[in-house]
Design goal:
Elements lengths: L1 H12 L3 H6 L3 H8 L10 E4 L4 E3 L13 E4 L2 H6 L3 E2 L12 H15 L6 H8 L3 H12 L3 H19 L4 H7 L5 H12 L3 H8 L1
Parallel strand pairs: 2-4
Antiparallel strand pairs: 1-2, 1-3
Helix pairs in contact: 8-11
């Protein structure tokens, strides 16, 4: 019964749901790897980890194959809650800057412990480092690097107040493996070294 309903739905919508769910052929994968523009409008690919979908010709970093979903139409990707890529514009519309920066901010908030460079963020968010830097500062009032530092320092403060972890361990926990640099940055941002901050706030 379910199959008959699905089949009827597919016929009414004019496409096969199995295509929507992603038939990843070697041909399509090669098109993605090679940014092959001749496949544009034949299919779109979405990346589950970023929530973004692209044209095959997109110059963004090649995703992991297991994270990719294939769609025949841009509307299908949108219906599945994927957002159009800022770089290749698969719907031929621009994502508003404020929305784009909100997505990047959300990514930083969740992944601040990882090594985050401007290039990494630009690759993930499908934009150029220069454009990302300029747009982020325009929307947030600070650069992406300053925002990452702010998140890390705020997280370090929590560790200092709520745990007995060593300073070097806290440094690693907030994504900064260079402890002397962490201490210098912490003092610059708060006026105290981490040890002084802990004494004052315990």
């Amino acid at each position: 019964m379910r199959e008959r309903i699905d089949q009827g739905l597919q016929e009414r919508l004019g496409y096969r749901i199995s295509d929507d769910m992603g038939i990843m052929t070697n041909q399509k994968w090669q098109a993605i790897i090679n940014n092959d523009a001749s496949y544009n409008n034949h299919f779109f690919y979405a990346v589950k980890t970023t929530g973004v979908f692209c044209k095959p010709s997109c110059k963004s970093r090649v995703p992991k194959k297991e994270n990719v979903r294939i769609f025949q139409k841009a509307e299908q990707a949108l219906d599945a809650n994927f957002r159009p890529c800022k770089r290749c514009k698969p719907t031929n519309e621009r994502l508003p800057d404020s929305e784009w920066i909100a997505l990047i901010t959300e990514y930083i908030d969740k992944n601040f412990t990882e090594k985050l460079t401007l290039k990494t963020l630009a690759d993930i968010s499908h934009g150029s480092p220069y454009h990302l830097h300029r747009t982020f500062k325009k929307i947030k009032g600070i650069t992406p690097v300053e925002y990452i530092q702010q998140i890390r320092i705020n997280e370090a403060k929590k560790f200092l107040m709520q745990t007995n972890k060593a300073i070097a361990d806290i440094s690693i926990c907030v994504g900064m493996s260079d402890t002397p640099y962490f201490i210098t940055l912490f003092k610059k941002k708060t006026g105290h070294t981490p040890a002084q901050f802990r004494q004052v706030h315990r």
